[in-house]
Structure formats: structure tokens, C-alpha cells
Amino acid sequence: MWTWHKSKIIKIVDETSTTKRFWIEVSDLEKIEFRAGQFITMDLPIHKKRLKRWRSYSIANAPDGTNILELCIVYLEGGLASEYLFKEVKVGDELTFKGPTGVFTLPQELENDIVLICTGTGVAPFRSMIWDIFEHKKAHQKIHLIFGTRYEKNILYRKELEELEKQWPDFYYTVVLSRERDWAGYQGYVHPVYEKLYQKHEQTKFYLCGWQNMIDEAKERLLAMGVEKENIVYELYG
Ligand SMILES: Cc1cc2nc3c(=O)[nH]c(=O)nc-3n(C[C@H](O)[C@H](O)[C@H](O)COP(=O)(O)OP(=O)(O)OC[C@H]3O[C@@H](n4cnc5c(N)ncnc54)[C@H](O)[C@@H]3O)c2cc1C
To answer: Which residue's CA is minimally distant from atom 53 of ligand 1?
Structure first.
């Protein structure tokens, strides 16, 4: 059984006009243990029925030995949690959550190249994994993050990921914009990008995170490229 924890919101920052970063401090622990890629499930006061109150959010920071977690959450119009988290909660409010849990994590030994494909806040678990490898100097092969969103103004964690790419020869960062007309990088959806770059994929492992349409299409296209099923791992947000 998972334990329920009490936490307090200690900081909220607008990452874009529709996405916020929330920092929560776990009040009943000095240190919160988790593996990069895992998520927590919050019990939010948004419904009378318990199960309808639960919402899961990936942890966006790397494990760092503290009791602070960062979440990166997008506002979905009309969504119960979205309305609550974007219009009601404020710094100092308490949140109850269970976890961290989840199996969307990297192997202990990173023996293969990894391609991390996401859209929107699907970048959250990948940010945790990337910083975990970088900060803890974990042995790894090539790491390629492919991030898709609509417009340039929606790119999440852009500055730090661009900086990381400059500092770290094994890390590659590609942004794909589906609606931005004036963009020198890749335009359209994420799919043609990995199709073009990874026709030769051998033991490359593909990790996918985001919403149903993107995940379904990516799984289908990767399989069509001949990627083995066990080399496709995904986390579905909804
Ligand atoms: C393992 C996991 C990890 C996740 N991690 C993250 C994360 O890191 N970041 C993140 O942003 N999300 C994440 N999610 C998604 C998150 O859990 C929620 O599903 C998301 O925040 C939407 O919840 P909601 O209550 O706002 O929407 P819900 O109320 O659940 O509604 C879902 C959809 O229905 C629509 N809808 C609902 N009510 C109405 C209405 N009255 N009228 C019109 N449309 C309506 C909403 O627009 C929305 O698209 C994760 C999900 C899982 C399973």
C-alpha cells in the first residue's frame, strides 16, 4: 500500500501562459525517495467521490536527497484539477499525495542510446531523468530529447535544456513546432523527426510520454520502422 503524504506548496511559477511549475515540500518527510520518471497521485478537493479526486503528475526534478518535488502542469480548459490548480491554489496551501510510484524509469545501466519523445508536459519525467544522469554522473550512451509543442512560446524548460546540450556532448535536444510558421527548426509533429533520424536504430530504446494521440501514433510508427516492442516504453497521461 502506498503511504499518503502531506505537502505544502512552496512556490508556483508560470513556465508559459498555460503551464505552471509547482514546488511542493513534503511535510512529513525529511527526504523523499523516488526514481527519475516516477509520478505522484494527488487527492484534490475537486469532487465528492474519492476516485474522481485523484490526479497523477510526473515528478519533474531529479532525486536530490531533499523533501521537495517539482511538478510541471498544463491547464486543460474545463478540467477539474486544472481549474483548481490554476485558479484556486496558492503558495502555503496543503496538498495530499500518495507515491512516488511508477515504472516509467530508465534501467540502472544505460547500455543503449535512448530517444526521449514527448509533447507538452510529457517532458516532465524526461527532465527528471536527464538531470539525474547529468547531476549524478551516471554512465550512459547517447541521449536525444525530442520535444513537440505548437508554438515557440510554449516550449518548456527551453533555456536549461539548450544550455545542457551545449555543455554535454552526449545530449541532443530537438524542438518540433506544429503551428509556428517562422521557425528555423523542425516543423510539424514529432513523428517525422525520429523517423528521419532513426531509420538505423539497432538497440536504441525509445521512451514516449504525453497524451493518447501522440503515444498511439508513435508506437505504431516505431513498430513500422522495425523497432522491437521491448524497445518502446511509454507513459500515458490520458
Ligand atoms: C502517470 C501520469 C502522469 C501525469 N503527469 C502529468 C504531468 O506531469 N503534467 C500534466 O500536466 N499532466 C499530467 N498527467 C495528466 C493529469 O493527471 C490530468 O489528467 C490532467 O491534469 C487533466 O486533469 P483535469 O482534472 O484538469 O481534467 P479532467 O477533469 O480529468 O478532464 C479531462 C479532459 O476533459 C476535459 N473536460 C473536463 N471537464 C470538461 C468540461 N466540463 N467541459 C469541457 N471539457 C472538459 C478537459 O479539458 C480535459 O481535456 C499525468 C497523468 C498520468 C496518468
So the answer is: 237
- The model's pTM is 0.96
- CA of 71, closest atom in ligand 1: 8
Nearest atom in ligand 1 to the alpha carbon of residue 237 is: 51
- Judged by phi (left if over 0) then psi (alpha if -120 to 50, else beta), residue 120 lies in left
Which residues of the chain have a pLDDT value below 70?
A: 1
pLDDT digits 0-9 by tens, 37-88: 999 999 999 999 999 999 999 999 999 999 999 999 999 999 999 999 999 9
**Ligand 1 and 74: CB distance under 6 A:** yes
Residue nearest to atom 40 of ligand 1 (CA): 78
107 located within any domain: no
Question: Are the beta carbons of 34 and 107 closer than 8 angstroms?
Answer: no
What CATH number does the domain containing 168 carry? 3.40.50.80
Nearest-angstrom CA–CA distance, 127 and 209:
11
CB 149 within 8 A of CB 155: yes
Range of the domain at 18: 4-101
Burial of 85 (0-12, 13-18, 19+ CB in 10 A): buried
Q: Is the CB of 16 under 6 A from ligand 1?
A: no
Query: Which ligand 1 atom is nearest residue 83's CA?
Result: 26
Looking at residue 86, which CATH number applies to its domain?
2.40.30.10
